[in-house]
């Protein structure tokens, strides 16, 4: 099944694209990584339930209030706020931090992520590009740039950025996921799956990559498979949250019901 770009709509994949952007920029933090795309703190937050994330955000907020000039605390707090849906507050934190660290690549990248989360795409692109060093290009920043370009409706430019990132970091799951989501934005579900499938199986793939694959599989009408992917390697609470996310995304613009109806017709016709 092939969806037109307009019928899918950007609202259907905006959450997933922001997740891709987060994966592309989170690894810029100075602390050691546990995956190819997310630092330990970010990976832990990605696995948290809603109440757990609220608690972590409150704790980081207290630490930030005591020392707002602490770079690492500000980065972690802004990331938690964004994951908790508080995009305006995350942007305020990162704007203040960027003023204090105007040449810090990690801070500029996170500032770009916060700008994109707040829908300020042109400034976000500028921040991420200013964080880049042409003679030593950073694949994470290239991937983040691609995610922003996709949201700006420039898929060809976005894919060029993703492929440059893959030249530096071959088979990186967060970049493959971003590339798959780029095709999803245009409604090319089969191409999206060809990138998201290996991304989900690559070492270091996190739950957001599997959520994106589950979304693409579900949009093709393979609901049981999609739910199995969403539940894979998760605690029961996180698995249920992933399935709820999947169903909410599929429910956008009645996509879930429309595909189910078409699937039933196809089965009836085969009979």
TrEMBL record:
Protein keywords: Signal, TPR repeat
SUPFAM superfamilies: TPR-like
InterPro entries given in the database record: TMTC_O-mannosyltransferase, TPR-4, TPR-like_helical_dom_sf, TPR_rpt, UCP035836
Presence of keyword Signal: yes
Alphabetical list of Pfam families matching this protein: TPR_19, TPR_4
Annotated signal sequence range: 1-22
Keyword Metal-binding: no
Positions annotated as TPR repeat: 139-172
Protein name as catalogued: Tetratricopeptide repeat protein
Lineage: Bacteria, Pseudomonadati, Pseudomonadota, Alphaproteobacteria, Hyphomicrobiales
């Amino acid at each position: 099944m092939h969806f037109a770009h307009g019928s899918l709509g950007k609202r259907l994949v905006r959450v997933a694209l922001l997740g891709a952007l987060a994966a592309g920029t989170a690894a810029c933090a100075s602390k050691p990584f546990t995956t190819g795309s997310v630092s330990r703190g970010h990976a832990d937050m990605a696995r948290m339930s809603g109440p757990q994330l609220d608690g972590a955000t409150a704790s980081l907020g207290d630490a930030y209030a005591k020392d707002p000039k602490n770079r690492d605390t500000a980065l972690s707090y802004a990331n938690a706020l964004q994951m908790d849906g508080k995009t305006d507050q995350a942007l305020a934190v990162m704007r203040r931090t960027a003023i204090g660290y105007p040449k810090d690549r990690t801070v500029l990248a996170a500032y770009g992520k916060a700008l994109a989360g707040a829908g300020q795409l042109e400034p976000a692109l500028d921040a991420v590009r200013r964080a880049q060093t042409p003679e030593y290009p950073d694949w994470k920043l290239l991937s983040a740039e691609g995610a922003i370009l996709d949201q700006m409706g420039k898929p060809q430019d976005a894919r060029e950025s993703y492929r440059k990132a893959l030249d530096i970091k071959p088979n990186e799951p967060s970049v493959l996921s971003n590339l798959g989501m780029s095709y999803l934005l245009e409604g090319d579900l089969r191409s999206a799956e060809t990138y998201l499938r290996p991304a989900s199986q690559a070492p270091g793939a996190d739950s957001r990559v599997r959520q994106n694959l589950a979304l693409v599989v579900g949009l093709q009408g393979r609901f049981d498979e999609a739910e199995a992917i969403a539940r894979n390697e998760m605690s029961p609470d996180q698995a249920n949250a992933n399935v709820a996310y999947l169903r909410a995304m599929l429910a956008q613009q009645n996509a879930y019901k429309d595909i189910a109806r078409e699937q039933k017709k196809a089965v009836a016709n085969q009979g």
